[in-house]
Tic22-like family (Cylindrospermum stagnale PCC 7417), 271 residues
Amino acid sequence: MKSLVRWGATLGLVGSTLLLTVFGVNFPVLALSEQQIKDKLDAVPVYLITNDKGLPLSRALPDGQNGQKGGGSVTGVYMSRQEAQAFITELRNTKGKDPKLDEVVKSLQVTAVPLGIIYQQLQETKNQPNRLVFAFKPVEQEIQGALALLRQSGQKVDQFKSVPVFAVRFAPEQGYVPIQMTSDKQQLIPLFLSKQDAQGLLNQVKPKYPKADIQVIDVDGVIKTLQSKNDSWLTQVLLVPSPESREYIKTLPRDNAPKAPGASQPKKLQR
């Protein structure tokens, strides 16, 4: 698990301003490799609570839960650095009766890791009896935004159990709206972790495409699609972190940041 707290300069890609560009380019159909999927997920920072040795804070699972043998443990993965820090603050404000435990709480800190590292760890341990288990902590504001959009589309939903992802479409039954990175003019298909960002892109395309809308997906559906589909446009998918995470990304060194691939016309993701 120590590898989870190592950080590389892999998050510089989305620091640029996004500029809308509509296009249609055909590329050969190529399946994405595990490394390509990891690279895409690496664009999104997630946040673990770790101790002074860099080990993630985990809680024990009852024997047999989630298919685990011998109990196992689960590690919380926050989508918001601020919410992870708020949890630590809450723990510190709770007076305990165990001095050793209080000392551990004092040493806790928020550590950012690429989402791709979490994915890699899950893939490497998925067939092990005590495989790693991560509990994602979505941002409540994004959950409520996703639920509101789903209800607007006529779906009757009371909860959203995954991390929501927002994609802008030309129309409900048409493809996704692409963007262009101003830094290198690469054409990409953005999948936003923030409804606010998706709304910004929607506002740009609405005058020309009145039926344009925001589709709500989830991170599990995105990963499943990347793993199972051979559509060429998937090479152009770009996961766009939240504004909070982009601000964090700006503080990181940009050397050896990943490069974005070329472009092709998108179709639907599965949810």
Notes: Residues 1-30, 256-271 have pLDDT under 50 and may be disordered. The chain has two domains: 32-137, 138-253. Residues 19 and 185 are 9 Å apart (CA to CA). The longest helix spans residues 140-152.
